[in-house]
Amino acid sequence: MPAQPKDGEPDVTLRFGHDLAAARKARSAVEPLLREGGEWADDVRLVASELVTNVVRHTDNGGRFDAWDDDPLLVQVTDPDRHMPTQRAAADATGGRGLAIVDQLADEWGTERTDSGKVVWARFKRPRGASPS
């Protein structure tokens, strides 16, 4: 897992079930950390949504979404499935673009196995002149 900023405790935590509304809830949960607005904030929202959607689509359980209000801002999704996600070479009409989107929008991202499943995380450098609270 990437080194967690600050004291290690996330500023935002959302536990979600196998629920199609979970991606919307993750976007709403991260909103207070996106003071800068604009394209950067849109990128964070989209990646948060994609990470949560991947858990909902590809596992039988829910997971936990966490975010740290730091520079860089860190978002991560933890789930109990030990199967590591991979980027697909070609996306189909109904999916397969999630990690390609994460790769394109995040400054850095990765996956880590845990004792109880896995974590997928993404970091976003704040726009110049911005700082966390």
Description:
This protein is α+β, with helices and mostly antiparallel strands. The protein has a single domain (12-124), classed as 2-Layer Sandwich (Heat Shock Protein 90), CATH 3.30.565.10. The protein has helices at 22-30, 38-58, 98-105, and strands at 12-16, 63-68, 73-79, 108-114, 117-124. The longest helix is centred in the middle third of the chain and has 21 residues, at 38-58.
Q: Would you list the SSEs in sequence order as H and E?
A: EHHEEHEE
The spatial strand order of the largest sheet comes to 1-2-3-5-4
The structural domain count equals: 1
Which structural class matches the secondary elements?
alpha+beta
CATH superfamily: Histidine kinase-like ATPase, C-terminal domain
Classify the helix fraction into a percent range.
Answer: 25-40%
Could you say what the CATH topology is called?
A: Heat Shock Protein 90
Shape, per Cα inertia axes = globular
The Cα radius of gyration reads 14 Å
The chain-level mean pLDDT equals: 88
Which CATH class?
Alpha Beta
Number of strands: 5
- CATH arch. level architecture: 2-Layer Sandwich
Give me the number of helical elements: 3
Strand content: 15-25%
The major β-sheet equals:
5 strands, antiparallel
Oligomer: single chain
Distance between the termini: 23 Å
Q: Low-confidence stretches at least 5 residues in length (pLDDT < 50)?
A: none
Brief summary of the model shown:
With 133 residues, the chain is α+β, with helices and mostly antiparallel strands.
Protein traits:
133 residues; alpha+beta; Heat Shock Protein 90; 5-stranded antiparallel β-sheet; 3 helices; 5 strands; 29% helix; globular
